[in-house]
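Schema walk-through. Below, the input block comes first and the output block second. Nothing else is stored per chain. Lengths vary across the set, and this one has 343 residues.
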Amino acid sequence: MARQGHNGLTQSTMSRFSVRMTLLLCLLALGGCSPSGDSADRVVRVGFFANVTHAPALVGLADGSFQKALPPGWTIQSRVFPAGPELMVALASGALDIAYVGPVPYLTAKARGVPVAAQAGVCRGGVRLVAIPAVARQGLDGLAGRVVLVPQFGNTQDVQMRMLLERLGVGTDGPGGVRLAQANPADADALLLSGQAGAALLPEPWGSVLIHSGRAVEMDIPAGREIFRESPVTVLVASEHFGRRHPEVLGRWLDAHQQVVAKMGRDPARAAALTEQQIKKWTGKSLPRLVAQNAFRSCIFDQTLDATVLAEMARISARNGYLPRRDGLVESLVGEMGRREGG
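--- output ---
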């Protein structure tokens, strides 16, 4: 998979990225959206990542659960994305009906007026901070002046890393700061090996892939345990246009989603095997069975949405220019997601 971005991106580059994404989302929200889910097509267009954190989407598509749940004559069109901001642009443009995405890109799009609604939780945890051994041995001090990779500016791992650094009082500029750069998770291995980055915050399975290779080790920073192991990392969202046009179809998808998550809990080995197959299908990269199993163990697949953590994510997103600064905005966004908790 082609790398998204490159190492050594500066803060001004991040700002330009944020401005471009903001303008595009605003334009789409103001009228660029084409109607989704036209009944004549009878197609559900779904977007997701080829990650273990999106396993319910991968498993439900692989075993036919979603297809079986749809009314007769309906089909599914699947599309894989490298990171959340790009996926949300596709959903905002009317190219998707349903999506599995991180909470931060969803909050960002919602704040910009994109007609999308959170439907259910998908996964908590499933994120690892990995580093080359020389950096990991020094702990937090080893990150000073180093580049830490995240999948994309404005995505959930970007904001999670900023949450950690803010809690620790560490900046993202200056000689002792931690520099963030964006890269496709599948390419992190090469960037760490070449010395262009010292660490990476990655969704599973990519953190486990690096650990299994022996080229990186997991960094256990106490302040990051709650952020990386308990925070929501994936939510299920849907276009409001699609929901209004086809409430029955959306309802059937949500029912199937709940059933898939339940089946995964009863038979995690089968779920890991199906996810492994789907990741290879979409990325061309094979996962050793042990890697897939370790990645699964770091994920909690359920429909919980922690409003407190979501509020912190939203506030840090606003401070970094991903969300507009408006009184009551964070509370209204998090309130909507909280009302969806458990269903």
